Amino acid sequence: MSVSSEKNVQKSFTLPKSDFDQFFTLLAQMGTVYAAVKVSEQSFAFRAVTSAKQIAFDAIRTILPPKKFFYPPSETLITYDKDGIYENEPELEFKVIFGVHPCDLAGLGIMDKIFSSGHADSHYMRQREASFVIGHSCMPDKHCFCQSMGSDCAKSGYDIFLTDIDSDYFIEALTPAGDQFIALAQPILAGATDKDHERNHHFWETRSAAFTNGFNSSNLKVTMEGEWDNKLWDELGERCLSCGSCTPVCPTCYCFDLVDIASLNNDSGSRKREWDSCQFTGFAKVNGDFNFRPTPVDRLKFWYRHKLHGFDDAYADKTCVGCGRCTVSCPSGIDDIVAVVKALQVSSAAKTSEGADA
Amino acid sequence: MPENNSQSNCRPDSCVQNNSASRACTPYLPTRAILSKITEMAYDNFLFEFEQIDPIFRSCLPGQFVEIWIPGAGESPISVCSGSVGETLQLLIRKAGRVTKALFNLKPGDWVGLRGPYGHGFPVDLYKGKNVCMIAGGLGVAPLRSVWQYLIEHRRDYGRLTLIYGMKHSDEILFADELIALRHSQKLELFLAAEDVTVCHIANLEIEAGRVTDLLDLAELSTDMQVAICGPPVMYRFAVERLRRLGIADENIWLSLERHMKCGIGKCGHCYIGGKFACQEGPVFQLTELANMHEVIEYPREKIQI
Lengths: 358, 306
Hints:
The complex is a heterodimer.
Chain A lengths: L1 H8 L2 E5 L3 H11 L1 E7 L5 E6 L24 E8 L2 E4 L7 E6 L1 H15 L5 H8 L1 E6 L9 H4 L10 E6 L2 E6 L2 H10 L4 E2 L2 H16 L10 H7 L4 H9 L16 E7 L5 E8 L9 E2 L3 E2 L4 H13 L16 H5 L7 H21 L1
Helix pairs in contact in A: 8-12, 9-10
Chain B lengths: L11 H6 L13 E12 L2 E7 L13 E6 L3 E6 L9 E6 L3 H6 L7 E8 L13 E6 L3 H13 L7 E9 L6 H10 L3 E8 L11 E2 L2 H7 L7 E5 L2 H13 L7 E4 L15 E2 L2 E2 L6 E3 H5 L15
Parallel strand pairs in B: 7-8, 7-11, 8-9, 9-10, 11-12
Antiparallel strand pairs in B: 1-2, 1-6, 2-5, 3-4, 3-6, 12-15, 13-14
Helix pairs in contact in B: 5-6
């Protein structure tokens, strides 16, 4: 008894990589496993996988963040016919999402907050509850700046987390569901030893030192506030195509549109939610052809402010997690957040020193 | 799996409509209401009345809005336009976009969907014991009708009431019969202006040639007045500048701002104003609150010529 109660307290485990196939089998017993798969020379995407061999363990950022599993690009919320209006509750597939990096886990944590607060969004919540998320450690590339946004260490959004410590995985559980899975996987896991903890610690130390991209974010909100009228926004806005690439790839962009799809004679139909983008021309339009954000400058600034300053939404803080997706996907090269922040900081610092001189 | 499972805010009656009373239900589900009456007001503006409405709409407060859904066309946020809501809900709607056009194809007996009420309206409790001036521009008269009706229903709780209503053309006047009755009742002081005035076809309604801002001088407002404004985006800065010149403090000025609230529940992002959801924290804002917000084009930041 004493041994088992001790095991209950144990929160960290190791799994030899050679036993990962068995681990995968256990995951697959829960539901469909989705993991990063190499889909082209340079890109990865979350796809359904049936064997561990298909998984790209060293994947950099996927094209789309995992928000798509719980908040799909298009989903039916409501259906109607002559007799009534009905909530759409499709059969849910239990999803096991493997290999989510710390930035994306932070993104999921933010999405959870947005959709669970106030008038909770049952569509998101239902899909989120029918999921099991396995975080995975990663090494930064030249676009990663999660360290600057404080989202480089996973704090929320996952059930269990795997850190790659050479020949083994160091495994930690966060949620009751994570604990349950660990209990199930007990036969192939070993309790983490002091040495394992040291190896885990060493990995994260090495990773922290590996970042080549980033900025000092301690004054980010103040900078964003003070540099609202900076000319840089005009320069960036002039180059913006309003294509909206930056928003679907963002792990925390949650804006949507609601549209009706009617049958030919409109005696039945459905009401759908579709991802929208604040970068599209008509996003802030109202009746009478009045547009509250008519130019790309207005729209770009709006988006940057949500990411780097934050809005009064349920999260109420900066929503950028530093994944670098917008930087990579922007065809005009204006979503280089790190370069933008640094330029704003230089301008802000110049103002401060001018003030000190005067 | 998410860590925090918040309480659902869904209403039991809409769940019943979906035969799943036991579980969390979608906040996007409208309840059915029957279109009972259509009254032409002026040009493309009609007053629509709905019955068999969900009892939740009895809680409507002046300045709040509802989402009206025409199946197949979509939803549109429309301000409540009566001081209180009982058996029927009145909405003044101009034929303008896809949804409102579809509404004009309906006939009494047809059903629509309704959600709401949403948002923070005008602070009628704070107005108690005070003089109140309402300033309406064009269709902005509809939300303000909910205010004047409410104030008159509780007439003894309020001081001097003034209604200033400007429009482009005198033919576009809305709620004319009600305004005539109000003028006779002497329950509030009424000032009307139009940029174009033709011979007024409505007896006993003097319409000045001019703008809302001209009326503000005529109305002899006292500096202690609480002011409620609703109109097209361009009107606000001029009206606010003139009010300031008349000595009215920013903290006594309340604006209802127009944005396209698509979801009404602080999720879809369309109604953001300077990082605040107009559907949650607005649509009515105190002028002082707007001073510190970005992208409020309605707020006069520079001196403007009037």
